[in-house]
Amino acid sequence: MYAKQGDMVKVHYRGMLDDGTVFDSSEGSEPLEFIIGHGQVIQGFEDAVIGMDPGDTKTVKIPADHAYGPRHDEMAIDVPRNRLPENICPEIGQVFEVQGPEGATFQVAVTALTEETVCLDANHPLAGKDLTFEITLVEIN
Question: What residues contact 10, with CB distance under 8 A and at least 6 apart?
């Protein structure tokens, strides 16, 4: 029995950057459960699981365009510090939820600071990066 579109699967995984840094892992927790073809995980991860049998392990490199997409410089803006709420003391790496002009909310991360400005970046932290995953298919339901 192999994994195919529409199957509910459980996998253990470890995600790494090109330099070997682990950015995510299911180690020490329950396996990740998702339905293949429902867009619950990045496309390249779904594609890698298709055709695996329970117990199979594989390592796959997923290019940025099949992961979190390219990085868009226009999604990072410098905001004058005086436009931030007074109770905010920004630090690099801090994540905020902000509301866009049409009411939608999204997350931004503080990526740079000067005396006058704070750079808020709405790119996904893994945008523009190729990702490597070690995937073990645990179960197909």
Answer: 31, 32, 33, 137, 138, 139, 141
Neighbour count for residue 120 (Cβ, 10 Å): 22
Helix (H) and strand (E) counts in the chain: 1, 9
Q: In the prediction, which pLDDT does 101 show?
A: 84
Contact by Cβ (8 Å): 66, 43? yes
**26: number of Cβ within 10 Å:** 17
Length of the chain: 141
Cα separation, 140 vs 10, whole angstroms? 7
Question: Residue 8 — left, alpha, or beta (φ > 0 → left; ψ -120 to 50 → alpha)?
Answer: beta
d(CA 136, CA 127): 24
Domains along the chain?
Answer: 8-69+126-140 (3.10.50.40), 73-121 (2.40.10.330)
Does the predicted model carry a pTM greater than 0.90? no
The reported pLDDT for the residue numbered 99 is 87
Nearest alpha-carbon partner for 80 in 122, 116, 111, 119: 116
